[in-house]
Amino acid sequence: MAGLILLSPAMLIVLLLLAVPLGTVIRESFLTFEAGRIGATDDALFTLENYAELLHPAYASYFLQTFRFAIFTSILSVAISLPLAYIVAHVLPNRAKTCAIALLIGLVFLNSMARVYAIQLSLGPTGFARTISNLTGISANSRAYAELLVTVGLLHFVIPVSALVLLGSVKNIDRRLIEAAQILGAPRWKSHLSITLPLCLPGILSAFLVSLTMCLGAFVVPLILGGGKVMFISNLIYNRFSQVTNYPSGSAVAMTMLIIALMVIAGIFAVARRRA
Amino acid sequence: MRLDMTRRGFLAASAGGIAAMSNVAGGGRIAHAAQPLTIVDWGPPFIDATREAFAEYGGSNATWVIHDGGAANVLAKIKAAWPNPPYDMIAAWRPVFLSMAREGWLEPVTVEDVPHLKDVPERLIDKDEDGNWVSIPRSLTGAVFAYRPDVCPIEINTLEDLFDPRLKGQIAWPHPLTYSNIQLLALAIHEGGSEENMDPGWDLLRKLAESGNIGRTFNSISEGITSLTTGETSISFMDGPSMLSVSRNVSLKFLSKHDESLKTFPWTEGWGILKSSKARQEALDFANYTISPEVNTRINAAFGDGPVNTKSEPVEGLEYLSFNDEQLERFAYFPDFDLLSKNADAASKRFEQEIQPLL
Fold first, then answer.
1. Which of B67, B50, B74, B63 is nearest to B15 (CA)?
2. Nearest-angstrom CA–CA distance, A263 and B176
3. Residue A166 — pLDDT band, cuts 50, 70, 90?
4. Is the ipTM here above 0.90?
5. Mean pLDDT of the region A95-123
6. Where are the beta strands (DSSP E) in B78-185?
7. Is B346 close to A229, i.e. CB distance below 8 A?
8. Inter-CA distances, A238 with B25, B97, B170, B195, Å
9. Is-contact B269 B90, C-beta < 8 A?
10. In 3D, which of B326, B312, B262 has the Cα closest to residue B124?
11. How do B136-147 and B265-273 pair as beta strands?
């Protein structure tokens, strides 16, 4: 009873700020949209048409594209963040460690628009686009280049967060285990592979899921760096809500994305639990 | 008795009180806009010119809000806050005014309310379904094809030139939600279509997408401006002021009176006064000021648009928008924005399903 009372303020906030808006979105997703109006009218009829539209193959490709970028970027982010977190936790001297952590936290709080435009300026036509294009053979106006920019943009956001999440796991590793392995003849890479990596698995999973969530919800990065060629589900939802004012369709897209994302995350947890 | 006091109400009351005290101290001078106005306009140069006009007008009490992207984005904000949106007057264009009129949000206006409207051609004024005037036009502008001759691999003379294989990745194409898809209408008209039959336009756009010549599609006009200015792309279709801002930095050739296939689409932009506004008279008075002959020329010179008041001096540098009757017939097209705006949802979906996957 005491627990319930203590939980009630938090539950009230969750109810008001999450459950009620979510309920509104769910309801809106089943309403008919009248072209030229703003959102569903008060007397709108219930329909499944908003969900049926999403069966078009093009929308499957947008969902696949979003998840492809999110999963690939998350894996890459963890692969880069883990050694980064290890270096910060165990290699850097104390003062440098504090500066590094401060830098990572500072990167997280840096204005997102400024960062995205900085990437666009650096890697766009006024920056190194031609150099990269000549080196890789990828045209700066091609879809491949747009995908590269989006990946770089996403990594720019998720690496600091991943590194901070992994820092906790990595710091808790007893270095004596690694030293003992090396004393017994294991090369450095093998000692990290057999000791550091397994012990960090919960942290790696957390970092991966945090990165995945951030990438799935990314909006500014594909909008600005995607060149109109890379479209995430978030951009689709934005178009529906802000420009077309087709709230029912936007709500249907949002709910579909939410369900798929929850299924993917649940699946990852299930696999992780089974392996553990 | 319950005292309903909102933030706006408090500001209004304070402003009224201060104005009254000023009257006493200043011997009875009355400042314009004693009621605070909340005015929504596009970003620079629009809002800068309008603020300057407001200051010259003697206005002292206004909150300025910049459109968040396209003007249509304000519709969701008004809907969410209706019947008490935090705006009094909104700068927008025909498709947005038509949407607002359908929702019943716009205050009807007359020549009695806005005397300078008598010098504005009636065809430029937006009307609701009952024929009431619901907007106060302030600018005549339009969208036009243009290209950078210093960057573009070929000379562009006709619409067919856009399909030239040497133009890989050179075209910045507006998303259908930008400009109410009149860029597709240009393609449709070329193939014998119209606002009622846009299928020929979609077929041509599909071919353009398959050709690989579209280097970028843009939702926000600033992306188009950046793309053209930086040389990422060299050909685009954008509104006049945006093209003029590009031409101030790089060499740009306007294709408005070049070939009949490269149509220019004129439209008006203006003010809409919300029915919910508590500063209706102040809003109408200021709107009237902005369309007075001299002020209309001045603000449109800053915008890069043409004046709507027939007594205004024309603005220099807008030759691309200046048509005689014969040129109007051949090179310009006045689209049915009502139909286009109603089809925005369908157009957006069709673009997502048929064109986007080809890019």
1. B63
2. 33
3. very high
4. no
5. 92
6. 89-93, 136-147, 171-174
7. no
8. 52, 21, 27, 26
9. no
10. B312
11. antiparallel
